[in-house]
Design a protein that fits this description.
This protein is of the alpha+beta class. The protein has a domain at about 245-590: DD-peptidase/beta-lactamase superfamily (Beta-lactamase), CATH 3.40.710.10. It contains 21 helices and 21 strands. The strands form seven sheets. Strands 2, 3, 4, 5 and 10 form a five-stranded mixed β-sheet that branches. A five-stranded antiparallel β-sheet has the order 12-11-21-20-19, sandwiched between helices. Strand 6 (about 190) and strand 7 form a beta hairpin. Helix 12 crosses helix 15 (about 385-395). The termini are far apart.
Length: about 600
């Protein structure tokens, strides 16, 4: 009894010592083994179109990882137990008792279960048979190894249910893109860690990503979560980003462009639909494209948004801007005729020529026939400064700043460096370079009474402040001139849209390669506005190196026609070329213009 009391006394003293004097130290030791501070990953914000339809969303997934040392050691221990049990059974063959048989069967079952777990992981993760063990052995000096990233929840749960030693899962989010390749270049994509690396995902990564939080949790001996104790740092979810794109028009634009590029066996193609009154980009498509959902077949060379990053000489699509610059400089009037005889102009060794001698032509005819000689003569009537200032006002030589990463400023040298040849060549679109976005943006004032609205890929809550870059009379006059291009006999006849009046311009620019222009390598394009009486949209199409049709009127204009027709219908823009609308428009056209009148030049 005395001995028992002494033992009880010692235990009580020991308990009091631990409870009073070592409580804090013991609590710290317990926390080291059980308490963990884990990261709470922020939910990435959605990217939507202008109507709130999703274009990029995050779905929950699980990434599986393991400690190679723990997993390999467990396998080795189970294999050793199995071999030992088998050796004992062989040594006592015929004399094996029930207990030894049970031990042997248990060891064999455990080892077989682990091996089957390895094979199950290989099947679920589409790995070659036996490759998992090889990878674990290669990383045996590490304590962390990813078995698979961003796996579907059901697949990850099946593997975790195997309860393999050292294997655990981490909840993450995977980005999903409903429009796939249709809007791949605009929306972009994230990398495996959820950081934006292309397109809007990259340009607005900080806003979309949010901020990860931290929480303190209790885990059991196997590392499984028991309970959350306290939030150390609040998680801040990412904000949504609403684009100006209309996913209906975007899908239509990509489908039509892709079909045409493959029909022409072309190198590439780009298309933009711009709301001229707000500056919002309603669609932007590039071919070839990429599917950001299929990471196994992604090719980095396809990531480039050609409509924004690539620059080329605009060719004849610049001629309406040349006429607008001349009207603004008051060196010609809208009724002037330009003498293009004898069909060419010589500048020393350099010759500008037309397909034939058109003789004296009106400005609408100059555009309809796409006369290089006529455009050169108009450009030479202006002084270099006026021509340069007008092109600068409509965005040439500067970044559009529409919200994309990698936007090019193109190339427009200062007028002080221009000679006579430069002034003439700039008149019909050579000697300077632009992106398709810049060129489309430059046409927008024609559709907005001379107002140059900032271009944007983001949905606007309220209109931005635009800049008056040309007189409203000049804009309307050039639109009427461009209508001749789309009429019968014009170079853009295939750009007609049933029920609507269309104004636009074709372009074919030879590429400058290795110090010379190549007549077998060219960029074809068509840019136009509609409805011409009350312009709303600017649509531009660019086809790079078509192998069949070699002009903008044949290669690009048909795509323009189909996309413009459907876009106007989707936006409920009323027709302006029906019998009941023509009389009213004739009245509008009969109103005199305030621009200078002119004679034959």
């Amino acid at each position: 009894m005395l001995a028992l009391l002494v033992v009880i006394g010692i235990l009580m003293l020991r308990a009091a010592w631990l409870e009073i004097f070592q409580q804090e130290w013991l609590q710290k030791q317990a926390d080291k083994r059980q308490m963990r501070e884990v990261t709470v990953q922020a939910y990435r914000g959605m990217i939507t179109d202008r109507n709130g339809e999703p274009m990029a969303v995050s779905s929950p997934v699980t990434s599986l990882w393991c400690n190679p040392q723990d997993l390999l050691q467990a396998r080795e221990d189970l294999r050793h137990d199995y071999e030992l049990a088998r050796q004992v059974a062989d040594a006592t063959a015929g004399d094996t008792n029930a207990e030894e048989r049970e031990a042997q069967e248990l060891a064999a079952a455990r080892f077989a279960r682990l091996e089957e777990g390895f094979r199950h992981i290989e099947r679920e993760l589409e790995m070659e048979e036996g490759s998992l063990l090889a990878k674990l052995q290669q990383t045996s000096n590490k304590q962390f190894f990813y078995l698979g990233r961003q796996l579907p929840l059901e697949v990850a749960d099946e593997i975790l249910d195997l309860d393999l030693p050292g294997v655990a899962g981490t909840r993450e989010y995977r980005r999903y893109y409903p429009l796939a390749e249709t809007a791949g270049h605009v929306v972009g994509m994230t990398n495996i860690d959820g950081d934006g690396i292309e397109g809007i995902e990259k340009a607005r990564n900080e806003i979309l990503a949010g901020k990860d939080g931290k929480t303190r949790v209790v885990r059991d001996a196997k590392g499984k979560l028991v309970e959350s104790v306290i939030s150390v740092e609040e998680m801040q979810p990412g904000q949504d980003v609403r684009l100006s794109l209309d996913r209906r028009i975007q899908y239509l634009a990509y489908k039509e462009l892709k079909t045409r590029v493959y029909e022409l066996n072309a190198k590439a193609g780009s298309l933009i639909v711009l709301d001229a009154h707000s500056g919002e980009i309603l669609a932007m498509a590039n071919v070839p494209s990429f599917n950001p959902n299929n990471r196994k077949e992604l090719t980095p060379s396809l990531y480039r948004n050609r409509a924004v990053t690539d620059k080329s000489e605009p060719g004849s699509t610049l001629k309406p801007l040349t006429l607008a610059a001349a009207l603004e400089a008051r060196v010609i009037g809208p009724d002037v005729q330009i003498n293009t005889s004898p069909g060419y102009i010589n500048f020393g060794k350099y010759r500008v020529k037309d397909p034939r001698d058109y003789g004296p032509v009106s400005l609408p005819t100059l555009l309809a026939k796409s006369s290089n000689v006529g455009a050169s003569r108009v450009a030479l009537l202006m002084n270099a400064r006026d021509q340069w200032m007008f092109l600068s006002r409509v965005g040439f030589g500067r970044v559009p700043d529409a919200g994309f990463s990698g936007e090019t400023a193109g190339q427009l040298t200062n007028y002080t460096q221009w000679g006579k040849v430069d002034r003439a060549s700039h008149g019909y679109g050579y000697g300077l370079s632009t992106s398709l976005l810049q060129l489309t943006h430059a046409y927008a004032p024609f559709a907005a009474n001379g107002v140059f609205m900032p271009a944007t890929i983001y949905k606007l809550d309220k209109p931005l402040l635009g800049q008056q870059v040309m007189a409203p009379e000049t804009a309307r006059a050039v639109v009427r001139m461009m209508e001749a291009v789309v009429q019968k006999g014009g170079t853009g006849e295939q750009a007609m849209v049933d029920g609507y009046r269309v104004a636009g311009k074709t372009g074919t620019a030879y590429k400058y390669i290795d110090g010379k222009y190549r007549d077998d390598r060219y960029m074809t394009s068509f840019i136009g506005v509609a409805p011409a009486s009350r312009p709303r949209l600017v649509v531009s199409v660019q086809i790079d190196e078509p192998k069949i049709d070699d002009s903008g009127g044949r290669a690009a204009a048909p795509v323009f026609s189909r996309v413009m027709a459907e876009a106007l219908r989707l936006l409920d823009v009323p027709p302006d070329n029906l019998p009941d609308t023509r009389q009213a428009e004739q009245t509008l056209q009969s109103q005199p213009l305030t621009a200078n009148a002119g004679g034959t030049t």
